Structures are given as structure tokens and as C-alpha cells.
Amino acid sequence: MFLTQNSAPIIGFCAKLLGYVMQSIYWIFSNGLGIENIGLCIIVFTLIVKLLMIPLTIKQQKFTKLSSLMNPELQQIQKKYKGKRDSESMMKMNEETQAVYQKYGTSPTGSCLQLVIQMPILFSLYYIISSIPAYVPQVYKYYEPVSQEVVADYDYFKYMDKAYDKYVLKDGEKDKYSYYDKIFLKSDSTKMTILKANKSGNTESKERKTVDALAKFSKDQWSDLEKCYKNVDKMIAELNVMTDDDWKKLEKDLSESDKEVVEQIKKAAQNKDSKIELVSDKDNYIDSSKSEVISKSKKKIMKIYEFGPINLSQAPNTVMGIALIIPFLSFLTQWLSITISMRETREQMKDNPMNNSMKVMNIVMPLMSAFIAFTVPAGLGLYWAFTGLFQLITQICINSYFKKVDVQEIIDENVKKMKKKKEKRGIYSDKVTSAANTQTKSIKNIANANYNTSDESGKANYKKGGIAEKANMLKDLNDKNRK
User: Fold this and answer.
1) Selected residue with higher pLDDT from 325 and 416
2) 3-class SS at 3?
3) How far apart are CA 435 and CA 444, in angstroms?
4) CB atoms within 10 A of CB 475
5) Does 117 have pLDDT greater than 90?
6) What is the DSSP string of 143-205?
7) Contact 143, 297 (CB under 8 A)
8) Which of 58, 223, 231, 373 satisfies CB 3.0 to 4.6 Å to 327 for a cystine?
9) pLDDT, tens digit, 9 for 90 and up, residues 217-240
10) CB atoms within 10 A of CB 432
11) Is residue 158 within 8 Å of 199, Cβ to Cβ?
């Protein structure tokens, strides 16, 4: 998947808004403080997002607090109707359950809204942290010169390498230019390659996709890319051993534009003093100045992604060593945060069969975060680790706050809010009641047409042949049989 901006309806919109936050943070650090560092930006960005989400966290914590009081009552109701599946018992169970929720001024879906709001934010954060160049123009500009050179020269490199492998390299001889294959020709299931980026689209699209590919490059891949440009003339010199028939074979089944590329390579190979002209710009050439562009961009990109001895653009599983501290911190902070936040709930649910499942989840979730942090770029793992750290600090503060707050105050506040909601809905309820009364009158009028008013004895005189008369006769028969 390319690292361009996400275009999903909700997630894409959230990512764009939060992308402006990240862009602003980077601008302040770079222009205001003279510091260009992705790691510091991620930490501040994480802190800001967590602060913005504190109101949602408090609401969710309130529901958790009330749940610890409601759960014993709800469990008693469940025990009371255990094994009863008839409709009457189920209705009574639902009524008593609803009564408990109304007592505390909440509902079974009390925490769902907070989760629904948080989910697109969490997904959008993933796209931003894993796609920094797409959301921060100041970072993108360091990749842009490289992507422009690569897109312009891609076809030349591709056909030079193909000609060298097929017509110059002898059986059993070692390929001195294997790095061309690594960068431009061979696909990699775990990394987006230049080959895939240059398959389709206009020049601008190819350059953007190439930046996506470069954003995942390791130090070794950057070194291979430098070698590609430094050794162009050496490879061209070796291609001069090819005959005209060899060149014709290479051009076979190629498109006109591809044949033009091969023709320029041929001319350069046959004239040692000449260099390959670019189709897009006849005044530019593939020469040592391009390798300098690659080298300068590489140094700058590596520097802004440095976080101590860790390169945040690399996944810990590809470099190992000190980078493994990030998935470890991700596990530790997430586990501590969950442990502290769920402590009171576990005490209330110690006799609940679901308690064991909760214990398992409290370990599984942090382990999953550690595994993800182990396999994705370290920048994303850093975000995850500091998310857990800030969440831990926030949770401690919230727990301290709730110790000073009377639970009854929370309940009273919730009941008032629920009452106001009911009053608002009451306007609509009155209309429904009025409509129901109208319908009831109509039903009564129809019913009166089926029987006459009662006689002197007070007994109803049903209309002869009517449904009401037949129903009454059946009722009388049943009453006699019971006697």
C-alpha cells in the first residue's frame, strides 16, 4: 500500500486534520527552534492528541465507575431469571435491567459513543505516523529531488541492467551491479519497490509513489541507490562489447518510447566520452552530480529520523539491537495502563466468569501492540509506546480525581441529563399518544358496530351474525365445560 494520504471518507478527513497538527509541530521545531527531528514531533503530537481525547476518556471512566456499581445488581437479575426462556420472564428481565440503568442514569451503550469516536482517530493516527512525508511537506521536500531523478532515469537503469545481465555478464561470473536489481527490478513483499512505483500513472504520480517507496528504504537500500548513480558510466563502458544484433534483440517487442531509451544507451556505450541524455530534459545527464543529490538527501533524511541510536524509519525486526527497546516499552506502558484502569473493575467482577477472559485480554492486547511495534517502522512504535505512557499518566490522574468525587454526584448528574432528554422526546411522545388515542376511538367505533348496547339486565346484546357474537358463544361454551 502506498503511503500517500488516506482518502477514506471519515478516516481520511480525520487524518488530514491531524496531519495539519503534525505539520504545525514540525514547523515550530524546525523554524522556531532549529530542530528537525521526527521523534520529538511524534512525542509532542501524541501528547496533544491524548490531551484532546481526555474528555472522552473521562466519560468512559465514568461509565466504568458506574458499571462497577451496576454489575452486582445486573448479575443478581441474571441469576434470578437463569434458565427461564419464556417470553414473560424475558420481558420482566429486560424491564428490571432497564430499571437498573435508569437508576444510574446511563444505558447499555453508555461507552459505545466514545469508542465510535476514538476508532477513526486511532486509524488516522496510524496513517499519519507511518506516512510522515505525505502529511508533512517539510519532510517531503527532502525526498522530492531523489524521486525526480529516479523517475526520470528509471527506464535507463532498467534497460542498462538488462543488457548487462544478458549480453555482458558471462556464465558463473559475479554480477558487479547486483544493486540495480535490488532497487529497480526485484519485488519485495514487505517493502514497496521503485519498480511498483513506476509501473503506471503520470510523472507527478510516479514521483509521489517513489517517495512512498523511499520512505521505507533502509540504510543499505539508500547505499545501493547511491551506487546505482555512481556506477552508471562504468556499466555503460562495459556495454560497448555488445554487437548491433545484440541491440536489435534487446529492442525486439519494445514500444517506440522504450526503443528510444535503448538507442540512447547504445550511443553512449559506443562512444565512451558521451553520456546518456534524459528524454524529459535534453540539457541534463546522468552524472556524478546526481549521486551527490542522492547522498545529500540521504544524509538529511537519516538525520531527521534519528532518535538517539535508533532510526525511526526502520522496523526493529530489520535492524534489531537497541531498536528492540521500542516494542518492549510499547508492551510495558500498555500493560501498566490497562492494569491500573481495570483494577477496580476486576475487583467488582472477581466472581464473574468473564473475569478470567479479562485477565487474558489484559496480557494479549499489550503483546499485540509489542508485536506490531516490532514489525512496523520504529516511528510508529514510538508513537504507540508514548501513547501508553501518556495514557498511564492520564489514568493515574483520573483515578486520583474520581477518588475525590462522590459517585452519587455522577449518578445525579446522569439522571438529570436523562430526564432532560426524555423531556425533549416528550414533545414527540405527546404526538404519538394523540395519534394513538385517535386510532383507539376508531377501533371502538368499529367494535360498537358489531354489537348493540346492553339490555335492561346489563348484558351486552351482540349483533346477530357478527364476529363478537360468535366469540361470546365460544366463551360461554368454554365456561360451561370448566364447570
Assistant:
1) 325
2) coil
3) 14
4) 10
5) no
6) HHHHHHHHHHHHHHHHHHHHHIIIIISPTT---TTHHHIIIII--BTTB--HHHHTSSS-HHH
7) yes
8) 373
9) 877 888 888 888 888 878 888 888
10) 10
11) no
